[in-house]
Write a structure and sequence with these properties.
The chain is an alpha/beta fold. The protein is built from 17 helices and eight strands. Helices cover 48% and strands 13% of the residues. Strands 1-2-3-4-5-6-7-8 form an eight-stranded parallel beta sheet. It is globular, with a radius of gyration of 18 Å. The structure holds hypoxanthine (HPA) and zinc ion. Hypoxanthine binds next to α3. It catalyses: adenine + H2O + H(+) = hypoxanthine + NH4(+).
């Protein structure tokens, strides 16, 4: 583990649901889990690709039913993130994944937001909330949920795009991103995790995103690398996630050093830390061990996270 003062910009709150908490919430809500015990659940954290992870991720979040459940997972993440050195966190949540289970938008949004509201005082971590839309569901549904979030004046700073990437290109979500832009929201999207470089181009040119989540496959396209480097588009890279979802074979094969060498604005994030073997300090620690990153390189990664955060200049200076 390596604690560096940093901002975490790529984090799914539903992916912080630790196995122990899954059992605790199941008991609290009277839900029968399809696992015999903790060991049985833990045995299932072997993934072959993004979809194999998403199947378990969506299934486990069924234990989240009440506002208190959402507040509790959020507080648990913030406590752990603070211990990892995180001083600012921009947290994605997947409203549609809860709506389809019959959990009201107010329940999930207000639960997460209530924990975030106390975060600076309780943990010293400033926060922002990002509503991520599921790209493997209809864009019309995403637009409707965005309208509902705006109507309820949800405390979101931006929108994102996640879930199964291949076959669900950014081009399908132009209207959603146009509406978000008109509403003054920040815009990010997962692209180039399993999907091709073309999806990164589309996210930039058609959705107008300000950051790319993952983006590791950009290295297959020199013109794209030049564009991303010239514009210093932030790429929120998640090394342990890429290993566990088999986007790369081992951490040694991870393109992060190559991305830094090409002048890309890369930062380090945990994605779904309860599923991928560690929080941001674990990511930094394993990167240092694997690549022998220098103190300067580590400081660059941490500084990149702060300069890529959606915060006012005053908070940015306090974080640097
Ligand atoms: N990729 C895409 N969608 C996701 C992820 C991810 O790593 N985690 C949660 N939703
Ligand atoms: Zn992600």
């Amino acid at each position: 583990m390596l604690q560096l003062p940093s901002a975490e910009l790529h984090l799914h709150i539903e992916g912080t649901l630790e196995p122990e908490l899954i059992f605790e919430l199941a008991e609290r809500n009277g839900i029968a889990l399809p696992y015999a015990d903790l060991a049985d659940l833990r045995d299932r954290y072997e993934f072959t690709d993004l979809q194999s992870f998403l199947d378990l991720y969506y299934s486990n979040m069924d234990v989240l039913r009440t506002e208190a459940d959402f507040a509790d997972i959020t507080r648990a993440y913030l406590r752990r993130a603070a211990a990892a050195g995180v001083r600012h966190a921009e947290i994605m949540m997947d409203p549609q994944a809860h709506l389809v289970r019959g959990v009201a938008l107010e329940t999930c949004v207000n639960g997460v937001a209530s924990a975030l509201a106390g975060s600076e005082a309780e943990f010293g971590v400033s926060t922002g909330l990002i509503a991520a839309f599921l790209r493997d569901r209809p864009a019309g549904e995403a637009l409707q949920v965005l309208e509902e979030l705006l109507a309820m004046d949800a405390p979101i700073i931006g929108i994102g795009l996640d879930s199964a990437e291949v076959g669900h290109p950014p081009s399908g979500f132009v209207a959603v991103y146009e509406r978000a832009r008109a509403a003054g929201l920040r815009r990010i999207a997962h692209a180039g995790e399993e999907g091709p470089p073309e999806y990164v181009w589309e996210a930039l040119d058609l959705l107008g995103v300000e950051r790319i989540d993952h983006g590791i496959r950009c290295l297959e396209d020199d013109a794209l690398v030049e564009r991303l480097a010239a514009e210093q588009v932030p790429l929120t890279v998640c090394p342990l996630s890429n290993v566990r979802l088999r986007a790369v074979d081992t951490l040694k094969d991870h393109p992060l050093p190559a991305m830094l060498a090409r002048g890309l604005n890369v930062c380090v994030n945990s994605d779904d830390p309860a599923y991928f073997g560690g929080y941001v300090d674990d990511n930094f620690g394993q990167l240092r061990e694997t690549f022998g990153l220098s103190a300067d390189e580590l400081a660059t990664l941490a500084a990149n996270s702060v300069r890529s955060a959606f915060v006012a200049q005053q908070r940015r200076e306090a974080l640097l």
